[in-house]
Structures are given as structure tokens and as C-alpha cells.
Amino acid sequence: MSTNNHAQDDVITAYKDAPTRTIHTGGVTYAYRELGPKGGIPVVFFVHLAANLDNWDPRIIDPIAAQHHVITFDNRGVGTSTGTVPDSIEAMADDAATFIKALGFDKVDIFSFSLGGMVAQALVVKHPGLVRKLVLTGTGPAGGKDMDKVAGVTYYDILRATVTLSDPKEFLFFNRNATGKPAARAFVERLKERTTDRDKPVAVKAFQTQLKAIKKWGRSPAVDLSRITQPTLIANGDNDRMVPSVLSEDLHRRIKGSELIIYPDSGHGGIFQFHDKFAPVALEFLAR
């Protein structure tokens, strides 16, 4: 990295200002954004179901990007990335590995949420040498209890949101109570902070294929997670309707030496509701 102060001043640390870039590899053009100081091990963010580059909470990304090289990306067939979404989590993990290697990295930290956490687990099991540290939030293991019900809950909440003209994430990620509702609205507003160069919404067919992959993952045999030896931080809310909170505890039991944080009175989006508490914890974990 240049020691020239001017170069340092040009580091982008606000996610809303990070330009969208592309890289072509393995017949796919991947869309990604990067920010934060270059050098050191980058933190690659694995996004959730039906989400694109615009779905990351800037209150999580920005504090991490103040100290780390951060990369977010659209996996194959998602948002602006080309190709079609694979119907298995393992194939998504292979695509993510292809993308990471194409950027020239042989070691990364992974910050994952929900579906991204499933992809991250599959990636660590299949490509263990690629990952130094792992953050798993709002997610669960292959064969996890009730994981295959994600689709039903998702469709139900999308319907509820459509009827009330709200964003489905307000129902899916947050409790519908006095604490959850304002937290949900604040989160949805933060996702609008970026006003230019917005990503392409995830196509319905891509979303349906992702759901199919999650269902398959939920019904597949359990994977031996003792193979994950990387330092792992696990977090969720105590009332996750999408990926039941007990699955975070299950991951914690099965990944040796992992740390677990469960936030009170919050749902699937617990880390977004408690971003002011969680971002410093994630930073401390990555720096250790």
C-alpha cells in the first residue's frame, strides 16, 4: 500500500460511496463493491436470500471498513452478476470461492448473514484453506431443525408485507412489537442511503431457486462441523422466525471454540437492530 498520505485520504469508508465493479471469471461476470484500507486480510460479505449489493446495512459495513478492506458481491445469477443461480448451497460456495480467487486472494475473513451463512459454511468445509475467520449471523447448519420451513415463512411474510405496502424485511427480520417496528423502519431507511449506482433487484426466478437450495440444505444430512477449525463468531436475535434461533446454538455447540451472541427481543435481523453493539464485537473478533 502507498505510504503517500494523499492515497490514504482517498480510502472510501462509507458503503454508500463504494463504486460497483465487475470481474469476469469462469464464464460469469461478478458485480462487487470494495471499500476500506487495502492490505491485510479482506473481509468478504456473503449476503442473504433475495438480496443484492444494496442490502447490506451501512451501520455494519462502515465501522468494519474503517479498519479493514471490505468486499461485498453478488453471487452468480444475483443482482447485476451474470449467469443463473445454482440450486444448491454447495454450488453457490464454489462460485464464491471462484470469485474470491479471481480477485487474487488466497485467504479471507467471511462475514455472512442468513443464506450467506449457509454458503459460508459450505465454503469453509470445501475450501478450508481459503478462510481465516468466520462470522455466521442469522443462519443454521445443513439438516438443521425446521430449516426447510424457511420458504413457507418467507412467502407468508411477503404476502403480509404486500397487503400492508411495507418492505417484507420489516416482517421477516424484526419482531412486530414496540421495539421491533421502529428498528425495522430505521433499517429499511438506512438501506436507501445510497442514492446512485443502485444494484439490480434480484429476479423472482433467482429468488425461487435460492429458496429451493435452502430447502435442500435444510433436508440434507448433517455435515461434520468439527471440521471447521477457524475462529467463529455466531450471532442472532432470540426470536428468529426465518432460521430458528436454536440453530445458532446448534452451530455454537458443533463448531469447537466458537463464540455465540444472542440479542434479546429481536429476530432474524438482530445484528441490524443492535448494530451499535454488534459492530464493535465483530471488529474485536476480527482484530484478535
TrEMBL record:
SUPFAM superfamilies: alpha/beta-Hydrolases. It comes from the Bacteria. Signal peptide: none annotated. Coiled coil: none annotated. Residues 43-272 form the AB hydrolase-1 domain. Keywords: Hydrolase. InterPro entries: AB_hydrolase, AB_hydrolase_1, AB_hydrolase_fold. One of its GO terms (molecular function) is hydrolase activity. The keyword Hydrolase applies. This is Alpha/beta hydrolase. It comes from Pedococcus bigeumensis.
